[in-house]
Amino acid sequence: MNEFLIGPFAQVLTMNRLPLDGPLLDSQLEILTDAGVVIRDGVIREIGRYNDLSKRPLPRHEIATPTVLLPGFVDAHTHICFAGSRARDYALRLSGLTYQEIAAKGGGIQDTVRYTRAASSHELEESLVARTKRLLARGVTTCEVKSGYGLSIEEEIKILEVIDRVGKSQPITLVPTCLAAHVRPPEFDSNSEYLTYIIEGLLPQVIQRNLSRRVDIFVEKGAFFPEESLIYLKAAAKMGFDICIHADQFSRGGAQLAAEVGALSADHLEQSLEEDFEALKKSGTFPIVLPGASMGLGMPYAPARQILNLGLPLVIASDWNPGSAPMGYLLAEAALMGMAEKLTIAETFAAITVRASRALRLTDRGTLTVGQRADMVGFPTGNYQEILYYQGSLQPSLVYANGQPIYNDI
Ligand code: NIG
Ligand code: FE
Known about the structure:
Blueprint (H helix, E strand, L loop, with lengths): L2 E11 L17 E10 L2 E7 H4 L6 E3 L5 E4 L1 E3 L11 H8 L4 H6 L4 H10 L2 H17 L2 E7 L6 H17 L3 E9 L9 H18 L5 E5 L7 H13 L3 E6 L6 H8 L3 E4 L5 H10 L2 E4 L1 H7 L6 H6 L5 E2 L13 H12 L3 H7 L2 H6 L16 E4 L5 H5 L8 E4 L2 E5 L2
Parallel strand pairs: 1-4, 1-5, 6-7, 7-8, 8-9, 9-10, 10-11, 11-12, 12-13
Antiparallel strand pairs: 1-2, 2-3, 5-14, 14-15, 15-16
The site of N-(iminomethyl)-L-glutamic acid has 14 residues, from helix 4.
């Protein structure tokens, strides 16, 4: 049995007892002061006053610097299993071309597909491991990862296998999603032919080999239309997949489709209107907004304030990918969007902890309470307000994943 006490923490933001939906005030945050956490076998066994807990004869991890502790961050939307760089796209965007114009010229996603197909499993694995290390150092202990740069049965399986192996070998939790329906690969002449090929040849294998329980599709002009997506998603749902949709990034349609199929999440939502959010609310679909894509493309943010005011459970994710969102820094992106959209600190933290966990169907994390996984991130300050205030420049001084110290520079 591996049991120890860690503390004292100046403040612990437990994220406990917060409503899952709608606006939050900072006064609703449960903040424990001079607190300690007892961890056994990767799980939080006790949490409370450090002075009381330290009377027990337990091994201690003592913290010398004032530290604020939070649940480990959950990044609920990324595409971090890829090869190559799209710095050329970036330069083209700076010259005035749009994301879609670059894609139409054969750049964009298809470029990353060429690099990723050419990479060996070993190369992909090495780069994914490096990215998970960067995520952990920045406090992300759970990360969703999409395939989608293979676009054939073999290449999508290759990517999902890499994600599976890295998830098993590294301390971060990876949640894999099959995004074979990202765009149509050049080998196919029609979208419907390609989607049928995926439904018949890939999805059954993915389920059988337990490589993912989630499918995603890019519903957009230049990717997949809502009508053909509906057929695809119905088939996937029948096989037992949870549904996520890249929705309303450049044009509307995806959010309504997400509501129609009862998707778990609708992600992006930059163009969505009130009626789209009302539909998502009715279907119990999580809205996941992706400020990193707005920053990467120089476009407006999704209306996060409006989403909360309408009573939905806002989730913020990084969308880390080589094209539209190369920054991949969840905390900084959440802080910057929080200022632009006037989100409270409680709303921003909930959007990258407890609400993000629920959007991935994970109930064993997201709060610091007895029985939860000991996934924790600490910052070297005595005041929780300073974390977002520094907009990402205050870096974690302590990260634990499943009760294991990953990073501890105190
Ligand atoms: O979420 N919109 C589609 N997919 C990604 C971008 C992927 C890429 O450009 O490589 C996104 O922004
Ligand atoms: Fe994305």
